Amino acid sequence: MHLSVKDVAKMLNVSEKTVYRMVRNETIPFYRVGGQWRFDRRHIRSWLADAGQFTVRTVSAELTREDEETISITEFIRRGGIYRDIKGRTKEAAVRACLDIIGKAVPHLDARRLFDSIMERERLCPTAIGNELAMPHPRHFSRFTTLSYIALCFLEQPIPFESFDKEQMVDTLIFIFPRSELRFLRIQAKLLRLLKDEQVLSMIKGGSRGEIYDLLSSKEAEIFGKIHSPT
User: In degrees to the nearest 10, what's the CA dihedral of 221, 45, 54, 125?
Assistant: First the structure.
């Protein structure tokens, strides 16, 4: 369901100005329809579950500060890697298999502890986001990494995966490993915005590594280079 700025402000119990600020700073999942800012109810509910340890005003204020690590989805995926044909017939088996593979490529990643934290987060709030995608992530990020990573994992076959509304079939797991909880919210918002683009979604599903990197890089410049303060 599409939500307006007014809807989200009411949902978060903040002013519309605060919602616009979060859009400008890419700290909340959003997209544009006919020149208007719109929000997906499922994404906002998931975002709220992850932002729950902070007040919304704190999130809005903290993430307006400059950070020495630039938010680049393309670079984070280069760090984390792209992996295909991963086996696993259940959520638990698929997540564990993905982490075992990622752990061999990403330095100092404790796959066992990370698995436990991700499954704890799944019990709190399932992470399927539609289009046969899920975005598993731990509850406490700084325990696992000092840099931000994203890993794209393509499963050998679709598996059942819970969402807010119903069980979905998922064939792609997108793991986010940010260096902090607040950092995660901004990465998540930017990634969800990119995944609203049909060309990005199609390329992620069927493109080569080079094609995925090239398209994401150009789309990041195209989409986020056009975000301005609303008047």
Answer: -110
